Structure prediction request, 176 residues.
Amino acid sequence: MHAATLTGLVATADGQPVAGALVTLWNEARNRKETVYSDAEGKYRLDTGFAGKVRLRGRAPHVPRLQRRVRPSAPTTASNNMLALVRLTDPQEISDSLTASAHAAALPFPDQDTKNTFISQCSYCHQQGNSLTRRPRPDAEWNEVMWRMEGYGAYITYGEHRRIQKLLGDGFNGKP
Prediction:
């Protein structure tokens, strides 16, 4: 069922279009969503079955997400839904806006063998680099994490255990 078409522009506060921004519409219950990307000119078009009180959210790298409430009534076309995003300048805020995989990709792997082991034994089951996994921890806590993962079935040598423990302590140090 088609309830509405939302169109608009994702731009910076000074009016520069933001290409490739995620524009997400949440239903009133906030248990379903529909997402499109803005085009090269920052424009988006979202054909939706949602009606009632919905939330429209814009997100892009290096900018905080912006939400606003919209109320399309069926059938309608709502236009001029501008999402003005403000570019982040604080290094910590920029770092926090990045994906978990961006943080995991920045880990200082000492060698290819350690990276391969990490991918096969850690990243295979767990998302690395999200706000929970990248928080700074003392060596003893990383050691406990490693032993717990081995108890759950990670198959690594003692040397790999120590290298990955150091990798996580060095890489997830709280710095942007």
Summary: The chain has a mean pLDDT of 84. The longest helix spans residues 158-171. The two ends are 45 Å apart (CA to CA). The helical segments are 91-97, 100-105, 112-123, 139-151, 158-171.
